[in-house]
Specification:
The strands form three sheets. This protein has a six-stranded antiparallel barrel with strand order 1-2-7-6-3-8. Strands 9-12-11-10 form a four-stranded mixed sheet. The chain contains two helices and twelve strands. The termini are far apart. 7% of the residues lie in helices and 29% in strands.
Length: 241
């Protein structure tokens, strides 16, 4: 049996999310979110993306590098969509804790940056990835990838919720104008983990160099503060205060 070569990181995705908290639950949920796919030096060739402009969307194949490493795989997991109580088979979910920690995202190709030291760079919309996520492969998305009669298993019983966002103008003014639409979209989709439903808790969303603090009830996300993001070196952001 021929020994398989190890996978190589071909690129890294750069986004406004320094941690997993607040990252959309699936790609395309917040189309205003822009990300840059920067190729590693060995793969930084214009020839490697020749013709890619002809496709409106791409598949990104990537690694769950922020998942707990070294843990044994389990045949069942607790999907957050089910409140973290019910167990389902790992291959019936999109859990990051898999035998091979590989993820798949469908993103919109916004542009290809062909100038600069890092060129070519792919600018994509709707990515659901943490800053620095390793990319293992990129493939064109084509209309044949769509299955109109597809069913969604347990996910169809838990549709995505949209919340009203109350964002005081003086606080919104602290957010760069080109990031406001994306931030509002992230907040409207409730960035909390499913098990965190305490309306009295103040959450902190690290986004685009800012710490966006908010509360949330049954209908409304209320932003209470926006401040520069200044975590201690090496500190993790738990997503709440």
């Amino acid at each position: 049996m021929t020994e398989r070569a190890p996978y190589r990181t071909i690129a890294r995705v750069h986004t406004d999310f320094p941690s997993k908290f607040g990252v959309p639950r699936q790609s395309g949920l917040v189309p205003e979110l822009l990300a840059r796919v920067v190729f590693e030096p060995d793969f930084r060739s214009p020839d490697a993306v020749r013709g890619i402009e002809g496709f409106s969307h791409l598949w990104l194949v990537w690694e769950f590098d922020k998942s707990v490493s070294g843990r044994d795989w389990s045949p069942t997991v607790r999907p957050p969509r089910l409140g973290g109580h019910d167990r389902l088979g790992v291959f019936a979910t999109r859990s990051p804790f898999r035998p091979n920690p590989i993820g798949l995202s469908s993103v919109r190709l916004v542009s290809v940056e062909s100038a600069g030291e890092e060129a070519p760079v792919l600018v994509v919309g709707g990515a659901d990835l943490v800053d620095g996520t390793p990319v293992l492969d990129i493939k064109p998305y084509i209309p044949y990838d769509v299955h109109p009669d597809a069913t969604s298993g347990f996910i169809q019983t838990h549709p995505e919720s949209w919340y009203r966002v109350s964002f005081p103008p003086e606080l919104l003014g602290r957010v760069p104008e080109d990031r406001r639409g994306a931030l509002l979209g992230v907040l409207a989709h409730d960035p909390r983990p499913r098990f965190m439903d305490d309306s009295s808790r103040v959450f902190g969303l690290p986004f685009a160099g800012l710490d966006v603090r908010f509360t949330i009830d049954d209908t409304t996300v209320r932003v209470v503060d926006v401040a520069p993001l200044t975590p201690e070196p090496g500190a993790a952001w738990p997503g709440y205060r």
